């Protein structure tokens, strides 16, 4: 008798993490992955395109799909983001609706739950930010949501504090279809390094600027040069829609862009484990968020 026949079959599948903006989807994906694969910020609409993270749990490969928050889109960019989120749910073996427990059952969340229900996929509910609410408030919220959609499972966690996540991983793993792994076991994500560099810079824009700037900024990696000493020279451009936004991003004597660059470089050096020389251009480009080319540069399908 050979030993291999005694091993349980491997499992593998896509798990879409969907919900309203700012619910904590990206925080959850990073916490489950045990490393940073997707950027996080206190501002809504941080994630703009789908990012897949590979999580191994026993003999299961969970491919988590972080998605943009679902909201009522106005701009062409917004439409492409929301389409990417729904596409993530459609392609997945199961979807996890993540709800900010402190915000509760908003109209936005209700609309998402109802639309998911019509999708015909296995659905789970995850009440996040449990650290911010009194525990007795969680059960009624869970019941209200389960009255809209009978979820196969309900989790109550704090993605930020890492509470309750072991059970999430185990349950997700058990609910995946049997099959071979789709990614090498040591892969972390499907995000190309050029996109990662742009995202890490955008994360600092989100963190270090306010009001209309974060929403109207996009970042593209222009060049990536490998150097003989093992370091990399990366040049990125931040596009904003107005001259005033450009002024804010540059700051007094260039102080703001310098600070954004320093933080982003440190983060990239830690993630890539190598020295990085980061150069940032800031350009005004009115209407980039209505431009198909800029939207496709993010890896999104332009919805016109
Ligand atoms: N207190 C608390 N804060 C959390 C928790 N999870 C996420 N947050 C915070 O919520 C904010 C939004 O987190 P993100 O992970 O960027 O949320 P998101 O759902 O990916 O947001 P979008 O990409 O904009 O749709 C950040 O400030 C996080 O630190 C949690 O469990 N507890
Ligand atoms: Mg996000």
UniProtKB/TrEMBL annotation:
Any GO MF annotation of the entry: small ribosomal subunit rRNA binding
Top-level division of the source organism's lineage: Bacteria
Residue ranges constituting the KH type-2 domain according to the UniProt record: 209-286
The keyword GTP-binding is annotated on this UniProt entry: yes
Era-type G domain ranges (all copies): 11-178
SUPFAM superfamilies: P-loop containing nucleoside triphosphate hydrolases (SSF52540), Prokaryotic type KH domain (KH-domain type II) (SSF54814)
Region described as G4: spans on this chain: 128-131
HAMAP family per record: GTPase_Era
Family designation: Belongs to the TRAFAC class TrmE-Era-EngA-EngB-Septin-like GTPase superfamily. Era GTPase family.
Function according to Swiss-Prot or TrEMBL: An essential GTPase that binds both GDP and GTP, with rapid nucleotide exchange. Plays a role in 16S rRNA processing and 30S ribosomal subunit biogenesis and possibly also in cell cycle regulation and energy metabolism.
UniProt-recorded name of the protein: GTPase Era
Species per Swiss-Prot/TrEMBL record: Falsiroseomonas stagni DSM 19981
């Amino acid at each position: 008798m050979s030993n291999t026949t005694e091993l349980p079959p491997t499992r593998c599948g896509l798990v879409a993490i969907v919900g309203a903006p700012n619910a904590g989807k990206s925080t959850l994906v990073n916490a489950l992955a045990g490393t940073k694969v997707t950027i996080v910020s206190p501002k809504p609409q941080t994630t703009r395109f789908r990012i897949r993270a590979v999580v191994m749990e026993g003999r299961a490969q969970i491919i988590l799909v972080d998605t943009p928050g679902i909201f009522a889109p106005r701009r062409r960019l917004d439409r492409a983001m929301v389409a990417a989120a729904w596409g993530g749910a459609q392609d997945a073996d199961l979807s996890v609706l993540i709800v900010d427990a402190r915000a509760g059952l908003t109209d936005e969340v209700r609309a998402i739950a109802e639309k998911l229900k019509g999708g015909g996929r296995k659905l789970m509910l995850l009440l996040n930010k449990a650290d911010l609410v009194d525990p007795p408030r969680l059960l009624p919220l869970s019941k209200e949501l389960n009255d809209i959609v009978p979820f196969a499972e309900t989790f109550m966690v704090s993605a930020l504090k890492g509470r309750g996540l072991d059970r999430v991983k185990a349950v997700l793993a058990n609910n995946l279809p049997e099959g071979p792994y789709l990614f090498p076991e040591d892969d972390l994500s499907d995000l190309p390094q050029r996109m990662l560099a742009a995202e890490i810079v955008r994360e600092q824009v989100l963190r270090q600027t306010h009001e209309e700037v974060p929403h109207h900024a996009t970042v593209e990696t222009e060049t990536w040069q490998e150097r003989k000493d093992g370091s990399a020279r990366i040049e990125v451009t931040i596009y904003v829609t107005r001259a005033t936004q450009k002024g804010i991003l540059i700051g007094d004597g260039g102080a703001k862009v310098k600070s954004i660059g320093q933080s982003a470089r440190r983060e990239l050096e830690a993630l890539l484990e190598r020295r990085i020389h980061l150069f940032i251009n800031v350009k005004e480009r009115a209407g980039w968020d209505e431009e198909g080319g800029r939207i496709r540069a993010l890896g999104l399908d332009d919805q016109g």
